[in-house]
Amino acid sequence: MTEKLYYKYWGKAENDALKVAYCSGQDERDKNEILVQFKPQLAKSLKKPENQLQLSDLDEWAKKEDKKIGKERWEYKQPNYAAYHLLPYHCLDVAAVGAVLLEQHPFLADRFEHLFAIPKPILIPWLKLLLALHDSGKFAESFQQLKPELRKKWWGDISKTNYDMRHDSLGFILWEDENAIRKSLQIDRHFYRDSLRIWLQATTGHHGLPPKNKNNSGKISAKTYFKEADISSAAKFSQEAYNLFKLDKEALQGLVAQDDWTVQQEKASWLLAGFTILCDWLGSDSEFFKYHTDTLFLSDYWEKYALPSAKLAVKRSGILPAQPATPKTLQQLFGYLKTPTPLQQQAEQLPLTHKPQLLMGTSIN
Question: SS3 sequence, 277-335?
């Protein structure tokens, strides 16, 4: 496939330089070179004087760290080791968690439908897209330069080194600036104001606070933090994610004309904000979402990696409600019970719904 520019962005990355050097065999260095460079870190980790460190201590350190983290085995020059995860893949990981949760948690999906006043067949593809856009701010060079070796490898010299605005706010700035991504995607101004802006404020602000888009001088221009290529790459990814999830924009626009639409969406955005935080938390777990650096079609990554990993992550998380037990008779539940009372018989016959219920009864002797 022709490499897309949006594959020249990292989304998650390993911060331990020693681990990267050990597991990847970075720059074809042998263990002696790694030992020399990282002696202070090894000595501190193993509580051993630097002058007593030996090559075998590298493997001892790896076993110790592996046991402490408990997620994956660390090996020297580990096969298929990746020190970073491409940004489009992380975005799809988070969207996949949301898709799985909405599929396997009917009550939650119903709640979204009720609060947004949008039928689920129309709403759920939009929710997937919004989750995929949660880290739009990471396309900014001011974020990407936090891993300068990757930014320089893909794009050359770095000019925007001012990471004084966190990536969640950078994402909102990218969308708020009418001359940035919205111009590239030709998004209708009224649709953005009445719907998309409200939703994106919730999903880009996924670190506990509403995202910022202003400073003392007024609204912030996206070009303060993004290069033109960053904006174009973010726009291309957004468009392809839109195509991947097969959104029905016409059906949604027919709903926007409802009375109090904007108020309805603002209220519903609280649920979306919390949902995004949960999905990002689960979708960032490298135990389930292994780092990938190879380039695949977004649809292939979605089907082969994002969805299967999300299903496992959601299952292991314990976040889904418990499944109801198989119905049993009173005699099966209580072996000593020969003849149920009228109240017990009535309780056994009461219909149960999938929604919360409060049942009260009393027995008069």
Answer: HHHHHHHCCCCCCCCCCCCCCHHHHHHHHHHHHHHHHHHHHCCCCCCCCCCCCHHHHCC
